[in-house]
Amino acid sequence: LALLQTMIERRLLRSEFERNGISASDEMVERYIAGVLEDSKQSRADLDKALAAAGLGWDKYFERMREEVQRMTLV
Prior knowledge:
The chain contains 4 helices and no strands. By secondary structure, it is mainly α. The relative contact order is 0.16.
């Protein structure tokens, strides 16, 4: 049920992003990730290890962070 709810929420958010013309360039996402790493005092290697442990690839993580940047823009 939680997975279905998450999928629905993400689909609704994408629809809102499109409707409002909100996008996030790769550069914006990279800056956001760099800020998150800096704030948490982690390196890219630390992040890669955490992603691997969670079974999440870099591309999927990057797209989730893109959605986060877009969500902040929407709000």
